[in-house]
Design a protein that fits this description.
The chain is elongated. The protein has 2 domains: 41 residues, Winged helix-like DNA-binding domain superfamily/Winged helix DNA-binding domain (Arc Repressor Mutant, subunit A, Orthogonal Bundle), CATH 1.10.10.10; 69 residues, Alpha-Beta Plaits. It is built from 5 helices and 4 strands, in the order H-H-H-E-H-E-E-H-E. The longest helix has 13 residues. Strands 2-3-1-4 form a 4-stranded antiparallel beta sheet, covered by helices on one side. A hairpin with a 6-residue loop joins strand 2 and strand 3.
């Protein structure tokens, strides 16, 4: 990766819908150069996905402690319910990122997690910025 690749990534982080032509204009290179570089970064796993921002206003990270005897089955259930799920070693076994339109909706979702068989404890952090 060189400076141009990093500049492309910076532009896409700011606006993932930016056209190749617009990126090329900003970086003073050809559209083909941008297209090839983006394709190479995707193929090499540097760019994993292009995302969007929504009007969803409440985002929480739910830290979950699992019963070790049921961890495997509970983890399967969580993976079927949530897209953004991360496994850890240590005091916390799993973290789930949840986005909702209201704090009440987030709270109801956390209650659903607490009710799952094998969940020992949860701790929810609400993103401020």
């Amino acid at each position: 990766m060189d400076e141009t690749d990093y500049n492309i990534i910076d532009i896409l982080r700011e606006n993932s819908r930016e056209t190749n032509m617009e990126i090329a204009r900003k970086l003073n290179v050809s559209e083909g150069t941008i297209r090839k570089r983006i394709m190479n970064m995707v193929n090499n796993g540097i760019i994993r996905k292009f995302t969007i921002e929504t009007s969803i206003s409440i985002e929480g990270i739910v830290l979950i402690k699992l019963d070790s005897r049921q961890a495997s089955s509970t983890l399967k259930v969580l993976k079927n319910l949530y897209r953004d799920i991360y496994e850890f070693s240590g005091r916390i076994d799993v973290a789930v990122r949840i986005s909702k339109s209201t704090i009440d909706d987030l709270n109801m979702e956390v209650d659903k997690i607490r009710d799952l068989k094998g969940v020992v404890n949860t701790d929810t952090m609400v993103r401020l910025k």
